Amino acid sequence: MASTTPSDRGAARPYFFFSYAHMPRIDASVGDPNLWVGKLFQRLCEHIINLTQVPPEAAGYMDRELRIGDNWPEALSSNLSACRVFVPLYSPRYFESEHCGKEWAAFLGRAQGQSAPKTVIPALWTPMRQLTLPAAAEDIQFNHADIHPRYAEEGFYGIIKLSKYRRQYEEATLALANRIIEVAESTPMPERAIADYRTVPSAFDHSIPERPVTLTVVAPDLQHLPEGRTPYHYGWTAREWDPYRDHNGSRPLADCAAELARARGFRPEVGSLDEHLDSLAAEEPQSPGVMLVDPWATTKDTCKEALRSIDRPDRQWITVVVPWNRGDRQLLAHEPRLRGCLTEALGGKLAEPASAPDVPTLDAFRIALPEALNKASQQFFKYAPAYPPEGEKVDKPRLMGPEE
Q1: CA 197 – CA 63 distance, rounded (Å)
Q2: Region 28-39: what's the mean pLDDT?
Q3: What is the C-alpha R_g of the chain?
Q4: Taking Cα atoms as reference points, which of 297, 288, 300 lies closest to residue 218?
Q5: Are residues 94 and 236 in the same domain?
Q6: Within its chain, how far is the Cα of 158 from the centroid?
Q7: What is the distance between the alpha carbons of residues 206 and 150, in angstroms, rounded to a whole number?
Q8: Backbone phi, psi, residue 234, to 5°
Q9: Is the pLDDT of residue 54 over 80?
Q10: CATH of the domain at 343
Q11: Contacts (Cβ under 8 Å, ≥6 apart) of 339
Protein backbone atom coordinates (compact mmCIF):
# COMPACT_ATOMS: atom_id res chain seq x y z
CA MET A 1 0.00 0.00 0.00
CA ALA A 2 1.40 3.35 -1.05
CA SER A 3 0.46 6.57 0.72
CA THR A 4 -1.30 9.31 -1.21
CA THR A 5 -2.20 12.93 -0.64
CA PRO A 6 -5.90 13.69 -0.05
CA SER A 7 -7.74 13.84 -3.33
CA ASP A 8 -10.10 16.47 -4.63
CA ARG A 9 -12.93 14.10 -3.87
CA GLY A 10 -12.08 14.14 -0.16
CA ALA A 11 -15.47 15.69 0.69
CA ALA A 12 -17.18 12.72 -0.96
CA ARG A 13 -15.28 10.07 0.96
CA PRO A 14 -17.71 7.44 2.32
CA TYR A 15 -18.47 8.06 5.96
CA PHE A 16 -18.28 4.32 6.62
CA PHE A 17 -17.38 1.02 5.00
CA PHE A 18 -19.89 -1.66 6.00
CA SER A 19 -18.03 -4.98 6.34
CA TYR A 20 -20.17 -8.10 6.73
CA ALA A 21 -20.07 -11.84 6.07
CA HIS A 22 -22.23 -12.83 3.13
CA MET A 23 -24.98 -15.25 4.08
CA PRO A 24 -25.32 -18.17 1.62
CA ARG A 25 -28.68 -18.71 0.00
CA ILE A 26 -30.56 -21.56 1.69
CA ASP A 27 -32.81 -22.40 -1.24
CA ALA A 28 -33.25 -21.16 -4.80
CA SER A 29 -36.85 -20.16 -4.04
CA VAL A 30 -35.79 -17.89 -1.18
CA GLY A 31 -34.97 -14.25 -1.86
CA ASP A 32 -31.82 -12.34 -1.00
CA PRO A 33 -30.33 -13.96 2.16
CA ASN A 34 -28.63 -10.65 3.01
CA LEU A 35 -31.86 -8.65 2.74
CA TRP A 36 -32.01 -7.65 6.41
CA VAL A 37 -28.33 -6.73 6.52
CA GLY A 38 -29.01 -4.51 3.51
CA LYS A 39 -31.95 -2.87 5.31
CA LEU A 40 -29.72 -2.11 8.29
CA PHE A 41 -27.11 -0.53 6.00
CA GLN A 42 -29.75 1.59 4.25
CA ARG A 43 -31.17 2.80 7.56
CA LEU A 44 -27.75 3.89 8.77
CA CYS A 45 -27.21 5.76 5.50
CA GLU A 46 -30.60 7.47 5.79
CA HIS A 47 -29.70 8.75 9.26
CA ILE A 48 -26.30 10.01 8.11
CA ILE A 49 -27.79 11.79 5.09
CA ASN A 50 -30.37 13.52 7.28
CA LEU A 51 -27.89 14.51 9.98
CA THR A 52 -25.07 15.77 7.75
CA GLN A 53 -24.49 17.49 4.43
CA VAL A 54 -22.85 14.42 2.90
CA PRO A 55 -24.03 13.49 -0.63
CA PRO A 56 -26.25 10.38 -0.62
CA GLU A 57 -23.70 8.34 -2.55
CA ALA A 58 -21.02 9.03 0.08
CA ALA A 59 -22.97 8.15 3.22
CA GLY A 60 -21.68 4.57 3.28
CA TYR A 61 -20.44 1.70 1.16
CA MET A 62 -21.64 -1.91 1.09
CA ASP A 63 -20.37 -4.37 -1.50
CA ARG A 64 -23.76 -5.92 -2.26
CA GLU A 65 -24.45 -2.97 -4.52
CA LEU A 66 -21.95 -4.17 -7.12
CA ARG A 67 -23.47 -5.07 -10.47
CA ILE A 68 -22.61 -7.47 -13.28
CA GLY A 69 -19.44 -6.41 -15.05
CA ASP A 70 -18.08 -4.32 -12.17
CA ASN A 71 -14.51 -4.97 -11.16
CA TRP A 72 -15.50 -5.67 -7.57
CA PRO A 73 -11.99 -6.08 -6.11
CA GLU A 74 -11.07 -2.66 -7.49
CA ALA A 75 -14.27 -1.10 -6.16
CA LEU A 76 -13.76 -2.61 -2.70
CA SER A 77 -10.11 -1.55 -2.61
CA SER A 78 -11.02 1.98 -3.69
CA ASN A 79 -13.62 2.38 -0.96
CA LEU A 80 -11.34 0.81 1.65
CA SER A 81 -8.74 3.39 0.62
CA ALA A 82 -11.06 6.35 1.16
CA CYS A 83 -13.66 5.50 3.83
CA ARG A 84 -13.50 7.47 7.08
CA VAL A 85 -14.79 4.76 9.43
CA PHE A 86 -14.87 0.96 9.31
CA VAL A 87 -18.05 -0.73 10.60
CA PRO A 88 -17.68 -4.52 10.94
CA LEU A 89 -20.94 -6.40 11.52
CA TYR A 90 -20.05 -8.98 14.15
CA SER A 91 -21.45 -12.47 13.66
CA PRO A 92 -20.02 -16.01 13.96
CA ARG A 93 -19.58 -16.10 10.18
CA TYR A 94 -17.78 -12.77 10.17
CA PHE A 95 -14.70 -13.99 12.01
CA GLU A 96 -14.51 -17.11 9.84
CA SER A 97 -14.45 -15.05 6.65
CA GLU A 98 -11.08 -14.48 4.98
CA HIS A 99 -12.57 -11.61 2.95
CA CYS A 100 -13.74 -9.82 6.09
CA GLY A 101 -10.35 -10.35 7.72
CA LYS A 102 -8.62 -8.86 4.67
CA GLU A 103 -10.98 -5.85 4.65
CA TRP A 104 -10.24 -5.26 8.33
CA ALA A 105 -6.47 -5.56 7.87
CA ALA A 106 -6.42 -3.36 4.76
CA PHE A 107 -8.32 -0.60 6.54
CA LEU A 108 -6.07 -0.66 9.62
CA GLY A 109 -3.04 -0.58 7.32
CA ARG A 110 -3.90 3.04 6.55
CA ALA A 111 -3.29 4.11 10.16
CA GLN A 112 0.04 5.96 9.59
CA GLY A 113 0.65 6.23 13.33
CA GLN A 114 -2.93 7.12 14.22
CA SER A 115 -4.79 5.18 16.90
CA ALA A 116 -6.62 3.05 14.38
CA PRO A 117 -9.05 1.23 16.71
CA LYS A 118 -10.93 4.51 17.26
CA THR A 119 -12.05 4.41 13.63
CA VAL A 120 -13.37 0.85 13.90
CA ILE A 121 -16.96 0.97 15.17
CA PRO A 122 -18.34 -2.57 15.50
CA ALA A 123 -22.02 -3.40 15.14
CA LEU A 124 -23.61 -6.55 16.54
CA TRP A 125 -25.64 -8.79 14.26
CA THR A 126 -25.73 -11.46 16.97
CA PRO A 127 -25.14 -11.02 20.73
CA MET A 128 -21.59 -10.86 22.05
CA ARG A 129 -22.17 -14.01 24.11
CA GLN A 130 -22.37 -15.99 20.86
CA LEU A 131 -19.01 -14.74 19.58
CA THR A 132 -15.41 -15.77 20.03
CA LEU A 133 -13.32 -12.75 19.15
CA PRO A 134 -9.90 -12.98 17.51
CA ALA A 135 -7.06 -10.87 18.90
CA ALA A 136 -7.66 -8.12 16.32
CA ALA A 137 -11.21 -7.57 17.58
CA GLU A 138 -10.27 -7.78 21.26
CA ASP A 139 -8.27 -4.57 20.81
CA ILE A 140 -11.49 -2.69 19.97
CA GLN A 141 -13.01 -1.30 23.15
CA PHE A 142 -16.66 -0.55 22.49
CA ASN A 143 -19.62 -0.58 24.88
CA HIS A 144 -22.62 -1.76 22.85
CA ALA A 145 -24.97 -0.98 25.71
CA ASP A 146 -24.23 2.71 25.04
CA ILE A 147 -25.98 2.26 21.70
CA HIS A 148 -29.02 0.60 23.27
CA PRO A 149 -29.44 -2.01 26.05
CA ARG A 150 -31.90 -4.16 24.07
CA TYR A 151 -29.62 -4.08 21.02
CA ALA A 152 -26.63 -5.07 23.16
CA GLU A 153 -28.63 -8.03 24.48
CA GLU A 154 -30.14 -9.25 21.22
CA GLY A 155 -28.01 -7.81 18.38
CA PHE A 156 -29.58 -6.23 15.32
CA TYR A 157 -30.82 -9.59 14.04
CA GLY A 158 -32.81 -10.03 17.27
CA ILE A 159 -34.64 -6.70 16.96
CA ILE A 160 -34.82 -5.83 13.26
CA LYS A 161 -37.51 -8.38 12.32
CA LEU A 162 -39.85 -8.04 15.31
CA SER A 163 -42.42 -5.23 15.30
CA LYS A 164 -42.42 -5.09 19.11
CA TYR A 165 -38.82 -3.91 18.99
CA ARG A 166 -39.36 -1.29 16.28
CA ARG A 167 -38.68 1.62 18.62
CA GLN A 168 -35.54 -0.02 20.03
CA TYR A 169 -34.30 -0.70 16.50
CA GLU A 170 -34.78 2.92 15.45
CA GLU A 171 -33.08 4.19 18.60
CA ALA A 172 -30.14 1.81 18.12
CA THR A 173 -29.59 2.64 14.45
CA LEU A 174 -29.79 6.37 15.17
CA ALA A 175 -27.28 6.08 18.02
CA LEU A 176 -24.89 4.02 15.86
CA ALA A 177 -25.21 6.53 13.00
CA ASN A 178 -24.41 9.39 15.37
CA ARG A 179 -21.33 7.54 16.59
CA ILE A 180 -20.18 7.02 12.98
CA ILE A 181 -20.70 10.73 12.23
CA GLU A 182 -18.80 11.78 15.36
CA VAL A 183 -15.71 9.75 14.50
CA ALA A 184 -15.92 10.38 10.73
CA GLU A 185 -15.88 14.13 11.25
CA SER A 186 -13.49 14.42 14.21
CA THR A 187 -10.85 11.70 13.75
CA PRO A 188 -11.33 9.99 10.36
CA MET A 189 -8.82 7.45 9.11
CA PRO A 190 -6.34 9.15 6.72
CA GLU A 191 -6.75 8.29 3.05
CA ARG A 192 -4.24 5.82 1.72
CA ALA A 193 -4.31 3.92 -1.56
CA ILE A 194 -4.89 0.16 -1.39
CA ALA A 195 -4.06 -1.38 -4.75
CA ASP A 196 -5.72 -4.73 -4.06
CA TYR A 197 -7.08 -5.57 -0.61
CA ARG A 198 -6.97 -9.30 -1.44
CA THR A 199 -3.16 -9.28 -1.18
CA VAL A 200 -3.30 -8.28 2.50
CA PRO A 201 -3.07 -11.12 5.08
CA SER A 202 -6.31 -11.60 7.01
CA ALA A 203 -6.46 -9.98 10.43
CA PHE A 204 -8.27 -13.04 11.76
CA ASP A 205 -5.51 -15.63 11.40
CA HIS A 206 -5.41 -16.97 14.95
CA SER A 207 -2.89 -19.67 14.15
CA ILE A 208 -1.34 -21.40 11.19
CA PRO A 209 -2.87 -24.81 10.47
CA GLU A 210 -0.28 -27.55 10.11
CA ARG A 211 -1.80 -29.42 7.16
CA PRO A 212 -1.13 -27.78 3.79
CA VAL A 213 -3.50 -28.37 0.88
CA THR A 214 -3.49 -27.07 -2.67
CA LEU A 215 -6.78 -25.70 -4.03
CA THR A 216 -6.48 -25.27 -7.79
CA VAL A 217 -9.08 -23.29 -9.73
CA VAL A 218 -9.34 -24.57 -13.30
CA ALA A 219 -11.44 -21.86 -14.93
CA PRO A 220 -11.02 -19.09 -17.51
CA ASP A 221 -10.94 -15.40 -16.69
CA LEU A 222 -12.91 -12.69 -18.47
CA GLN A 223 -10.22 -12.19 -21.08
CA HIS A 224 -10.07 -15.88 -22.05
CA LEU A 225 -13.68 -17.04 -22.08
CA PRO A 226 -14.47 -19.90 -24.46
CA GLU A 227 -16.52 -19.00 -27.49
CA GLY A 228 -20.22 -18.89 -26.67
CA ARG A 229 -19.79 -18.52 -22.89
CA THR A 230 -21.24 -15.43 -21.18
CA PRO A 231 -19.13 -13.59 -18.55
CA TYR A 232 -21.75 -13.79 -15.76
CA HIS A 233 -19.88 -16.35 -13.63
CA TYR A 234 -16.34 -15.06 -14.19
CA GLY A 235 -13.93 -12.36 -13.03
CA TRP A 236 -10.62 -10.79 -13.90
CA THR A 237 -8.73 -13.83 -12.62
CA ALA A 238 -9.45 -17.56 -12.57
CA ARG A 239 -9.80 -17.38 -8.80
CA GLU A 240 -12.89 -15.17 -9.14
CA TRP A 241 -14.91 -17.89 -10.88
CA ASP A 242 -18.34 -18.07 -9.22
CA PRO A 243 -20.37 -21.02 -10.62
CA TYR A 244 -23.18 -20.65 -8.05
CA ARG A 245 -23.43 -16.87 -8.34
CA ASP A 246 -27.21 -16.73 -7.91
CA HIS A 247 -26.99 -18.52 -4.57
CA ASN A 248 -23.94 -17.25 -2.69
CA GLY A 249 -24.02 -13.45 -2.71
CA SER A 250 -21.57 -13.09 -5.63
CA ARG A 251 -18.69 -14.69 -3.82
CA PRO A 252 -15.88 -16.61 -5.59
CA LEU A 253 -16.02 -20.35 -5.06
CA ALA A 254 -12.32 -20.40 -4.18
CA ASP A 255 -12.96 -18.23 -1.12
CA CYS A 256 -15.71 -20.54 0.09
CA ALA A 257 -13.42 -23.54 -0.48
CA ALA A 258 -10.55 -21.91 1.42
CA GLU A 259 -12.77 -21.19 4.43
CA LEU A 260 -14.08 -24.76 4.47
CA ALA A 261 -10.49 -26.02 4.34
CA ARG A 262 -9.31 -23.77 7.17
CA ALA A 263 -12.27 -24.76 9.31
CA ARG A 264 -11.03 -28.36 9.07
CA GLY A 265 -7.46 -27.63 10.04
CA PHE A 266 -5.92 -27.26 6.58
CA ARG A 267 -3.70 -24.46 5.35
CA PRO A 268 -5.02 -23.81 1.83
CA GLU A 269 -2.90 -22.46 -1.00
CA VAL A 270 -5.28 -21.20 -3.66
CA GLY A 271 -4.17 -20.63 -7.23
CA SER A 272 -4.87 -21.19 -10.91
CA LEU A 273 -3.90 -24.22 -12.98
CA ASP A 274 -0.99 -22.30 -14.49
CA GLU A 275 0.30 -21.46 -11.02
CA HIS A 276 0.01 -25.00 -9.65
CA LEU A 277 0.71 -27.15 -12.71
CA ASP A 278 4.35 -27.95 -11.91
CA SER A 279 3.58 -29.18 -8.39
CA LEU A 280 0.46 -31.08 -9.48
CA ALA A 281 2.41 -32.91 -12.22
CA ALA A 282 5.48 -33.61 -10.07
CA GLU A 283 6.48 -37.24 -9.66
CA GLU A 284 6.48 -36.98 -5.86
CA PRO A 285 3.49 -35.43 -4.05
CA GLN A 286 4.10 -31.93 -2.75
CA SER A 287 0.85 -31.71 -0.77
CA PRO A 288 -2.70 -33.06 -1.03
CA GLY A 289 -4.65 -31.23 -3.69
CA VAL A 290 -8.21 -30.55 -4.80
CA MET A 291 -8.93 -29.20 -8.27
CA LEU A 292 -12.11 -27.14 -8.75
CA VAL A 293 -12.86 -27.58 -12.43
CA ASP A 294 -15.12 -25.47 -14.63
CA PRO A 295 -16.31 -27.72 -17.50
CA TRP A 296 -15.98 -24.76 -19.89
CA ALA A 297 -12.24 -24.58 -19.22
CA THR A 298 -11.77 -28.04 -20.69
CA THR A 299 -13.01 -26.88 -24.10
CA LYS A 300 -9.63 -25.17 -24.56
CA ASP A 301 -6.94 -27.43 -26.07
CA THR A 302 -4.21 -25.89 -23.93
CA CYS A 303 -6.17 -26.67 -20.76
CA LYS A 304 -6.86 -30.25 -21.89
CA GLU A 305 -3.17 -30.81 -22.54
CA ALA A 306 -2.21 -29.47 -19.11
CA LEU A 307 -4.82 -31.58 -17.33
CA ARG A 308 -3.73 -34.76 -19.11
CA SER A 309 -0.38 -34.53 -17.30
CA ILE A 310 -2.33 -34.84 -14.03
CA ASP A 311 -4.89 -37.41 -15.21
CA ARG A 312 -2.84 -40.42 -14.15
CA PRO A 313 -3.60 -43.30 -11.79
CA ASP A 314 -0.50 -42.49 -9.70
CA ARG A 315 -1.98 -39.14 -8.64
CA GLN A 316 -4.32 -40.39 -5.92
CA TRP A 317 -3.48 -37.43 -3.65
CA ILE A 318 -5.19 -35.11 -6.12
CA THR A 319 -8.99 -35.13 -6.20
CA VAL A 320 -11.36 -33.39 -8.60
CA VAL A 321 -14.57 -31.47 -7.83
CA VAL A 322 -16.72 -30.29 -10.75
CA PRO A 323 -19.47 -27.75 -9.93
CA TRP A 324 -22.41 -28.37 -12.26
CA ASN A 325 -24.97 -25.71 -11.45
CA ARG A 326 -28.39 -26.98 -12.54
CA GLY A 327 -29.61 -23.40 -12.65
CA ASP A 328 -27.04 -22.45 -15.30
CA ARG A 329 -29.06 -22.85 -18.50
CA GLN A 330 -26.10 -22.25 -20.77
CA LEU A 331 -24.16 -25.00 -19.01
CA LEU A 332 -27.04 -27.45 -19.41
CA ALA A 333 -27.60 -26.50 -23.04
CA HIS A 334 -24.02 -27.51 -23.85
CA GLU A 335 -23.90 -30.45 -21.44
CA PRO A 336 -23.08 -33.26 -23.94
CA ARG A 337 -20.14 -31.36 -25.41
CA LEU A 338 -18.84 -30.26 -22.01
CA ARG A 339 -19.10 -33.79 -20.62
CA GLY A 340 -17.07 -35.00 -23.56
CA CYS A 341 -14.37 -32.37 -23.05
CA LEU A 342 -14.17 -33.19 -19.35
CA THR A 343 -13.72 -36.88 -20.13
CA GLU A 344 -10.99 -36.13 -22.66
CA ALA A 345 -9.07 -34.07 -20.13
CA LEU A 346 -9.75 -35.84 -16.82
CA GLY A 347 -11.53 -39.11 -17.56
CA GLY A 348 -9.29 -41.12 -15.27
CA LYS A 349 -9.53 -38.77 -12.31
CA LEU A 350 -13.28 -38.37 -12.67
CA ALA A 351 -13.71 -42.13 -12.47
CA GLU A 352 -11.92 -42.32 -9.13
CA PRO A 353 -14.13 -42.79 -6.03
CA ALA A 354 -12.66 -39.66 -4.44
CA SER A 355 -13.86 -37.36 -7.21
CA ALA A 356 -17.10 -35.37 -7.26
CA PRO A 357 -17.88 -34.95 -10.98
CA ASP A 358 -21.37 -33.44 -10.67
CA VAL A 359 -21.97 -31.00 -7.80
CA PRO A 360 -25.31 -29.30 -8.51
CA THR A 361 -25.61 -26.74 -5.71
CA LEU A 362 -23.53 -24.70 -3.28
CA ASP A 363 -24.90 -26.75 -0.39
CA ALA A 364 -23.79 -29.91 -2.15
CA PHE A 365 -20.37 -28.34 -2.67
CA ARG A 366 -20.07 -27.66 1.06
CA ILE A 367 -20.55 -31.39 1.60
CA ALA A 368 -18.40 -32.61 -1.28
CA LEU A 369 -15.34 -30.47 -0.63
CA PRO A 370 -14.55 -31.68 2.92
CA GLU A 371 -14.84 -35.28 1.68
CA ALA A 372 -12.46 -34.52 -1.19
CA LEU A 373 -10.03 -32.84 1.20
CA ASN A 374 -10.00 -35.81 3.56
CA LYS A 375 -9.53 -38.36 0.78
CA ALA A 376 -6.72 -36.36 -0.81
CA SER A 377 -5.03 -36.01 2.56
CA GLN A 378 -5.26 -39.74 3.27
CA GLN A 379 -3.74 -40.59 -0.10
CA PHE A 380 -1.00 -38.01 0.36
CA PHE A 381 0.23 -39.72 3.51
CA LYS A 382 0.10 -43.04 1.71
CA TYR A 383 2.16 -41.91 -1.29
CA ALA A 384 4.38 -39.17 0.17
CA PRO A 385 8.04 -40.18 0.58
CA ALA A 386 9.21 -40.81 4.13
CA TYR A 387 12.37 -39.16 5.38
CA PRO A 388 13.73 -40.98 8.45
CA PRO A 389 15.92 -38.98 10.80
CA GLU A 390 19.65 -39.00 10.21
CA GLY A 391 21.95 -41.15 12.34
CA GLU A 392 22.21 -44.78 13.35
CA LYS A 393 19.14 -46.90 13.63
CA VAL A 394 17.97 -47.27 17.24
CA ASP A 395 16.08 -50.38 18.34
CA LYS A 396 12.66 -49.88 19.84
CA PRO A 397 12.71 -49.95 23.65
CA ARG A 398 11.03 -52.94 25.29
CA LEU A 399 9.89 -53.66 28.79
CA MET A 400 11.98 -56.13 30.72
CA GLY A 401 10.65 -58.66 33.15
CA PRO A 402 11.78 -58.80 36.81
CA GLU A 403 14.21 -61.65 36.09
CA GLU A 404 15.96 -60.00 33.14
Answers
A1: 13
A2: 79
A3: 25
A4: 297
A5: no
A6: 25
A7: 31
A8: -125, 165
A9: yes
A10: 3.40.50
A11: 295
Residue 6 backbone zone (phi > 0: left; psi -120 to 50: alpha; other: beta) = beta
Q: What is the C-alpha to C-alpha distance for residues 38 and 251, in angstroms, rounded to an integer?
A: 16
Q: In whole angstroms, what is the distance from residue 378 CA to residue 380 CA? A: 5
Mean of the per-residue pLDDT values of the chain? 84
230 shares its domain with 272: yes
96-100, 135-139, 364-368: which has the minimum mean pLDDT? 135-139
Contact (CB, 8 A) for 13 and 232: no
Same domain, 163 and 269: no
Residue 121 has pLDDT above 60, yes or no: yes
Which has more confidence, 118 or 147?
A: 147
**Sheet containing 85-90: order of strands:** 60-61, 16-19, 85-90, 123-124
Q: What are phi and psi of 292, to 5 degrees?
A: -100, 110
Contacts 24+ apart (CB under 8 A), 42-51: 43/173, 44/16, 44/18, 44/87, 44/173, 44/176, 44/177, 44/180, 47/173, 47/174, 47/177, 47/178, 48/15, 48/16, 48/177, 48/180, 48/181, 51/177, 51/178, 51/181
Calculate the alpha carbon distances from 288 to 7, 104, 280, 284 in Å.
Answer: 47, 30, 9, 11
Helix (H) or strand (E) holding 291: strand 289-293
Number of domains in the chain: 2
Is residue 5 situated within a structural domain? no
Q: Which of 239, 248, 244 is nearest to 271 (CA)?
A: 239
- Rounded distance, CA 148 to CA 178, Å? 13
Question: Do residue 180 and residue 302 come from a single domain?
Answer: no
Terminal CA-to-CA distance of the chain, rounded, Å?
Answer: 70
d(CA 255, CA 371): 17
The torsion angles phi and psi of 152, rounded to 5 degrees, stand at -60, -30
Q: Where does a domain end: 139, 166, 199?
A: 199
Residues 216 and 195 in one domain: no
Same domain, 372 and 224: yes
Task: Name the β-bridge partners of 211.
Answer: 266
* Dihedral Cα 198, 189, 136, 40, nearest 10 deg: -80
Helix (H, G, I), strand (E, B) or coil at 293: strand
- 90 vs 10: CA distance, rounded Å: 28
**% pLDDT > 70, the chain:** 85
